[in-house]
Amino acid sequence: MWPVSLMQMIGALLSSRLILRTGTKFIVVISSIILSFFYFILGLTAIGGSSNNLATIITLSSLATLGAAMLNVVLINILTFSVERRVLGIATGMNTVFRLIGGAFGPSIAGSLLSTYYQYLVYPVTLNGQETFLSVQLPSDYAFQLTFYIASIAGLLMVIIGSMTRDIKIRGTMVSQIISKITYISRHPSLVPALIIKNLLFKYSNTLGIFIFIGHTSLQLPA
To answer: Where in the sequence is the domain holding 182, given as residue range(s)?
Structure first.
């Protein structure tokens, strides 16, 4: 499933770049729409069952993962920029707790659906030279439909909730300044030595000022 993993990386990079341009609210809404839409399409595709092309399923799953990856990045940014610094550790800890809870409930709900709605497939097999039939219990197409539709509804709820959140503009913050400096250095590599000297002088300007003051005062002292 390397396409899904690739989409996770692309979604994270794309979301981190778009946040600096548009703010958090737009990314929450658009990523939730992507997630909900492609899960809904997967639910419609599940009607065809095994007659669907595997490449189609992987493509739709990868695009749904793109929305999920974008959503994960923007949610942690909303969290860190919405609380005070003294409670930031508690907020990020609670975020981890609720993500673990969601990671526990999601597979449980999907697993219960897949085990509730099933079908039997009968295959002819040969045992000890005699032909017999082997029945295999597999989740039905309806079970996959319900799973994808529930995920699509969850994404739609995120669209509604995201549209009511406060838009946070990260441009101008320390993160934006660091990214801007990296971009500037990558475009002007010849200025790297001068920038390093400038930053060192700025960082240790107080220390240099103290030494200059001591040296200037010592020169004025009588011998």
So the answer is: 174-220
Q: Give the CA radius of gyration of the chain.
A: 28
Residue 169 lies in a domain: no
162-196 pLDDT, tens digit each: 888 877 776 655 555 555 555 555 555 555 565 55
Beta bridge mates, 133: 124
Q: What is the pLDDT of residues 20-66, one digit of tens each?
A: 788 888 888 899 999 999 999 988 888 777 677 788 888 888 898 88
Which of 33, 139, 23, 132 has the alpha carbon at shortest distance from 81? 23
| Residue 218 predicted with pLDDT over 60 | no
* Phi, psi torsion values for 172, nearest 5 degrees: 100, -15
Same domain? For 149 and 190 the reply is no
Q: Both 198 and 89 in a single domain?
A: no
Which residues contact residue 217 at a Cβ distance below 8 angstroms, ignoring those fewer than 6 apart? none
Domain boundary among the residues 119, 143, 163 is at 163
CA atoms within 13 A on the CB side of 174: 3
Identify the CA nearest to 68 among candidates 10, 143, 146, 19: 10
